[in-house]
Amino acid sequence: MVRAKPLRDNFGRLIDYMRISVTDRCNLRCTYCMPDGVQLVPAKQILTFEEIVDVCRAAAKLGIRKIKITGGEPLVRRGCPSLIGRIKEITGVEQVTLTTNGILLGEYLDALLDNGLDAVNISLDTLDADRYRKMTGCGELSFVLESLDRAVKSRLRVKINSVLQKGINDREWDDLAKLAQNRPVDVRFIEIMPIGCGKRYETVSGDEVLAALRGKYHATERELSVHGNGPAVYYRIPGFMGSIGFISAVHGKFCDSCNRIRMTAEGELKPCLCYGESIDMREILRSSISEEVRDDKVCEAICGAVRQKPAMHCFESKEQISEDRQMVQIGG
């Protein structure tokens, strides 16, 4: 296989990772992501699987090697495992991973594995069943924990994404971290993004959690090994099977190593999560032009989004954030 020339933005950053939302629907109602009253788009405005595969094929030609499937909750969209299998078959795609809330993961795990899923991220903010129902609006924690253990048993690479919020679940840092004690999983503490209703919540900084962990587990050590495609910084606690990671978008800016672009379920290609600018891929994909011309235009749009990537986000200055949609409408 002839490899594409590395895709770089105007700041020299290698762009080899694309996050693709396949739906704005979700079976939970976590308020910082999908608050009451959020407007869902008509199904006809959501990209078809064929259109998503076309985008992935063009992206792979340009040097995108890693694809993350997100939502909403991607597993509420029928056929999601088969989509993963189709993307895995694209020449140049080296890895396809999934982010899920875990409720349906156990039900679809075998199909996901059969279609070549490489890794899964499970969103889990509390280990208290009552608090979980309150935070998610309707979820049953037991389904998530069962899915987690099934995924680990299958030897799928598993990461747990936890968002701590002051006054809500901020005292659970140790219980959540201990998920990595007897399981080979990475537990990552993610600072809440000030997007949509996320602006209303006071996040817990990664530095606060790290200090607390070091206060209890004195030998916590920084890891230099690569754990995936994202910006997490990892630490090892002696005696733990897994690692503890931190994604500190607000207090630990990592824009200098950003390697991604993202596409919403409607086909809007976003250079940066922080800003409202996007490129309409759906218009190109559904235009009445020849397949060859359309493919060229899809490639041009992806290159255009990469060129438009800003030097850095402005999450630390909420008044400068121009993205006004909810997180579920953009893609996690």
Task: Provide a descriptive summary of the structure in words.
There is one protein chain. With 332 residues, the chain is of the alpha/beta class. The chain is built from ten helices and twelve strands. It has helices spanning 49-62, 80-88, 105-114, 129-136, 141-153, 173-177, 206-216, 281-285, 291-307, 327-330; strands at residues 17-21, 66-70, 95-100, 119-123, 157-162, 186-190, 221-222, 233-236, 244-247, 260-263, 268-270, 279-280. Strands 7-8-9-6-5-4-3-2-1-10-11-12 form a twelve-stranded mixed beta sheet. Helix 1 (49-62) crosses helix 9, helix 2 runs parallel beside helix 3 (105-114) and helix 3 (105-114) packs parallel to helix 5. The two termini are 32 Å apart.
